[in-house]
Target: Chromate efflux transporter
Amino acid sequence: MNVIKKWLEIFLVSFRLGLTSFGGPAAHLAYFREEYIKRRKWLDERSFADLIALCQFLPGPASSQVGISIGMVRGGIFGGVISWIGFTLPSVVALVIFAYIVESGDVVDSSWIHGLKLVAVAVVAQAIIGMGKKLTPDKQRVTIAVAAAIATLLVPTATAQLVIIGIAAIGGYLLYRSEEIEEVPNLPINISKKLGVISWTIFFSLLLLLPLGREFFSSISYAIFDTFYRVGSLVFGGGHVVLPMLEREVVPNGWLSEEMFLTGYAAAQAVPGPLFTLSAFLGGAIGGWEIALIAVLGIFLPSFLLLIGALPFWNTIRSLPFAQGALKGVNAAVVGILLAALYNPVFTSAVLSGVDFAIVLVAFSLLYYWKWPAWLIVILTALLGSLATIIS
Model:
């Protein structure tokens, strides 16, 4: 395939996902699996799970990083950039507009938004079933997945999630260290290890030097870039974990009021795509679309530098005997963490009545058994959610 056509395909697919991927990180991964793995077969199931495992270990928005990684595997570094633009552009544009016109968060109560939350329940459930069949084929890995789900529900913090993944890696190594080494398909990563080292160097240099530069550069643009770069570099777990750190950065500085920050948070719940695009609303509210662009670039740049640094070494790491056993444990834990996310926040924030659950059952049946495309079910469920709200 011509490289231009390949890049265009990456953009169009990711843009469609950016328009329809409601429901948070767990739902994003489910949509990615449906589109990239099952439908287009850009990756095999094992490689997809290994990328999720890698991105769970890195700071930043894990689901966005998986999308960027798939773009890089498909079309090089520029493919990753295009994939990110496509996936984040719809929510960035929407939130910049919100920053100009929204004075309250009432928009998130729209009935069609509620319907889109319901379809996320069905999509995540289908993904967990599919991934569970591949990644938890024996009692040991089922046990790891269940234990990870329980631990995640009992201690729902980003730090606990990292600990759970670490323990699962150790457990996987101990359980499967004596097994014969599996031959895993190499990811076609066209990034040199030298460039990977340079990327890691740039990442840490910016993290250390940007705060020092604020002594010499007093512009709001510099301060915003430094602030959002630091947040994107230090937040593990992504999603809602980024909110308290952003609040501590923008409200005490006097850039935004607490009320405006919470309005932005509410607006971010109403749009598809990653919650990290809340940075677009905050930047837009602080200084217009130009500051919004700086904030978005600042918070996502660490993800690119980290992935460019890690991916060139990933094929080697994932093929090592000790790593294969550890990844079996980690992948099982990822299934468990997604299972926990299916309950909270995906199910608990969406299913508020028996009618809601009935809509979820319809969406799941059409998706899992009748094999309807996800985009069509998104439209149908949004309409059903609106109708149910009107009737009630």
